[in-house]
Amino acid sequence: MLLLLYLYAMRNLFNFILFGFFVFLLKSCDNNKITKPAYLNIEKLEMAIDPSSTYGNTSSKITSVWISSNNVNLGAFELPIEIPILMDSGGTHAIKIEPGIDINGISSFRGIYPFYSSLEFGINLIPGETANLPVGSSNIVYYDYDSPQGQLYIKSLENFESLNRQMTITSQSDISWTLTSSPNLKFPAPQGETNTYSGMALLDTGNCKFEVSSNENFILPGGGKNVYVEFDYKVTNPITIGVIASNPGQIIQMSTATFLPNKKWNHAYVNLITEVSGSPQASAFKIFLGSAKLNNGIRDTILVDNLRLLYRE
Q: Is the pTM of this model over 0.70?
């Protein structure tokens, strides 16, 4: 009996000592408070208005951003976003924002657009509070100055503001462009800019193929360099864009991306790098855009505007 009481007492003593040990460990932990993060709110980024633009309206569609704070990369984020920024204390932080796009219209295929300038500014961040972009810092421009990648070329493929067409029908097309100035059809220009006409093609029974190509032959950089076409579109039938390569002894037409019908005007970025760099023997390239009518029993409308070609050399 005495032995059982002794063992019971020893067990309680062991539990008491073990409990005291854990209390000691907890008290010895770092009790410093964690500083709350600050937040940077970014609603949208757009191109700066340029009423004198020769390549069409300054339309854009920036869907994501790559951000760094004090030279620390914070990652890529889809817009709009409120980004938490960890910090030891408040103060001015150097922020760098690189605009991102949906390449070839694919939302899961995003990247930094190599022809847009980055935004760099200092901003006062306070732990636990949200800061907005400084006034005027949400406007971007084409990065056309002192780039180590070479000089930027922006070629207007078609903006429909002159009588002469720069992209004309091919032998594959049943119909040609028409100009529209109807308010509910033409591209809605950004405030401060004008847009008199947009290009339109109507697909119907007997007129079921539409294709145009650039009048100019472009000598484009290969070797893995980016070559982009930007354009605005609103279509009820899929449209395809690509290149026509002039190879020795043959002409090769290659499609790059197809865009599905949409109810509102959209802006697209098409990267021709695969087709251009994959044709090292080509002496020149034309850009084409086309649509083959689906068997849907209705008349389809193709509306496009502000087609431009961008590359560096």
A: yes
